[in-house]
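User: Teach me something about this protein's shape.
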Amino acid sequence: MEYLIGQRWVSHADAQLGLGVVVEVEPRRITLSFPAVGEERTYAIDNAPLTRLRFKEGDHINTVEGVELIVTDVAEQHGLLMYTGTDHHEEQLSVSELELDAFVQLTTPQQRLLNGHFDKNGDFALRVATMTHVDRLQRSPARGLMGSRTSLLHHQLYIANEVGQRHAPRVLLADEVGLGKTIEAGMIIHQQLLTGRASRVLVLLPPSLMHQWLVEMLRRFNLHFALFDIDRLSQMTDGNPFEAEQLVLCSLEMFEDNDHLQQLALAAGWDLVVVDEAHHLHWSEEQAGEDYRFVEALAQSSPGLLLLTATPEQIGQASHFARLRLLDPSRFHDLQAFQEQEREYRQMSDMADTLESGTIPDNLPADLDRNLAPTELVKQLLDRHGTGRVLFRNTRAAVEGFPQRVLHRYPLPAPEQYVHAQVELEERLHPELPYYDESWLDFDPRVEWLVQTLKKLRPEKVLVICAHATTAVALEHYLHMRAGIRSSAFYEGLSIIERDRAAAYFADEVNGAQTLVCSEIGSEGRNFQFAHHLILFDLPANPDLLEQRIGRLDRMGQQHDVEIHVPYLQDTPQETLVDWYDRGLDVFRDSCSAGTMILETFRERLKDQLDQRTEAFDELLVDTAEFTNRTREELRDGRDRLIERNSCRRDVADALIEEINALEAGDTLENYLEALCEAFGVDQEFHSEHTLVLRPSEHMLTGHFPYVNDEGTTVTFDREKALSREDMEFITWEHPMIHEAMDMVHSTELGNAAIGTIKLKGVPAGTMLLEALYTVNCVAPKALQVERFLPLTPMRLLVDARGKELAALVPHERLNTLIERVKKPTALAIIKQVHREVDAKMSLATAQAEARLQDILKDAESQMRSQLGAELARLEALREVNPSIREEELDNLRYRIEECAVHITHANLQLQALRLIITT
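Assistant: First, the predicted structure itself:
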């Protein structure tokens, strides 16, 4: 190669130098100036690591004057290249290579390959694998649902899929206690964020649930919410603090009597607002409370709204109507009319029962076709009648998989130190509270009972819950230091990291703690269903708190009966409370979703008996039991089975579970993550089956790999292990580690140019093959979800010397096992000789890919119009008989159809990777 002063060359040894210009040529040496870094480099002519920069027609070039041109012609004059091109004003200009901007970046596969910048064949294979996996995930019907650290439960997956795919969903989630409303909301939020339907989310909660939500969203869905309280807001003095974060958790109480704060929250603008415990909002026909009015204002200004509440019947029709009114005020505007409709819905529910028995009733609505099969008629009933599109409710009676509860009572004599104390009721229920030291541990019979019980239960895991942190800390210290029992404490004084460590120590099956001693927060936010023994060291005064405590173990996925152990001091308020819960509410054996209402009904009578138990207590037990049984019967008889059917269609849920299981099966994801770690320089260490420890190394390609911290990160691909080991990251195809790493591959040049040799029988040595990978590039707003119909669609072509396409004959995976690495000097020598051949083969490959693209685009638009058009037609028909179909939904569907068609039409090809293969 002849070097001339003024020519532009690039260093394939150091791409960061930018574009060099030859400034001196000697018989054996050559000197180049690199203006981008202000350096000169001198090389031996015989082995200079340099490649002549030659742009071609269609390339974009920049001049030192900042003018960008699209090259239309290249000519050589006196050894220098002259480029002719058009600028953004469509004017034609000619520039010498001397005028090119030194800050050149060679990023396209063809530029990098022909200028000697190529990667390992393993990186090329990783790039191909990345495009293939992204395409598969974009096509998956379970997209947005596979990334959560949850069991695959039918009712939760169905609701999340049904609601999460809607534009601006506005629904009421009203599952019974223990069925996972928080998980359903998290799955919906996760799907809305992942698919671009939402980006800003505000969650309003009672203060007691703040920590639970923070933990659940982070641990289960990898959603990093910011927790806003008065202290934090007072430190954020610039601008609107609610605009500083995309995902915000805050207490609804924080906005009471604070109009300024309410206005800031309203002005921030949210795509989705979530309100937990929504039945606490105050509303009546005569007057709405301040909390209700604030949520109503948010509901009016935000497209999406999720309300989470207890089973609606237990709080009355008026309260139920008030929640629905927030979701759709034009649909639910009159309480009396709603009550009339509710009676009609109950008739429809009975009608569905009749249809499922195989009988077609005489009073079938006129809009239903009597000639259809009963199963089809039930589907039409679900679609067309009732509040099924805005209300989802599953009950424990309808959902299988709950364990039995078994109560064990342990009456213990009250010690003298407690008996003679004249104290308030709170301290009689928790008599250890007045002691500033831990002396009570020596005489309280519950302590010795606890030690002996734990020893008897060994090696079973046991969860211990008590009301106060001081009690929990003292007990755990006693068990650990004086009784020699492996234990850990879990209470509000710990940081989230410390709580994680305590929970992980308890979850460890081999070397972990036998018992976890929790304060009341142990009944919030964590599920320990790997244990089935629960010790209630004391009892809360609120039956809902007791239900929450039991609910830590009595959950979906529990494999054993829940053994509930209750020690109590005889002839004290503790015994009275145990009796009321046991013989009045029967809460130790049967879940109670109406606990607060029952407590309110008998609060004064119960308080009197706790202060001084009398003969009237037996009457209280009888009245409570009758009221509780009557309430349970009303709830069970009053269940709207039409809504329950619409809240979980098992055939849909079965298909989703099958899809998720298929994506998780085998070791495809594990192998892909290992390839990512290999490419980016992340160390891997085997931990256990389907579990790795990832650590940053000194040779990392980038300064950071997502979710791998300096101390190392333990990851598992096993869903069951992830559910019991919260200290491990649960890696799925939708985990941010995988998602961000895929983006790092996709958005950079890693692996987009490679070279190798291969031995093929019957093929002459020196034969050139060019392997090209194209994808469809469709630039469209994420919220349109165009990739559902037009995913990346990787197109691999393998062109031989005669221009024949061989991809089908030589699969990519087979090629990877045969290809061999080429040493750098040899590779550079090959590249210099095959410029024109590569350009020619590229033209052939691109022409074939372009021909395929036209069919792909035609099929994509046809599929889009078919799917979205069918959904639009269905909703338009339903709206004629079911007013809960909002016009906004229909408008959005019409808009999506037209916009998707426009973007699909303008989609084009993108060359993702090139590999030059030479036979030997």
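Now, about its shape. The mean pLDDT is 86. The domain at 405-570 is CATH 3.40.50.300 (Rossmann fold). If you'd like, I can walk through any region in more detail.
User: That's plenty for now, thanks!
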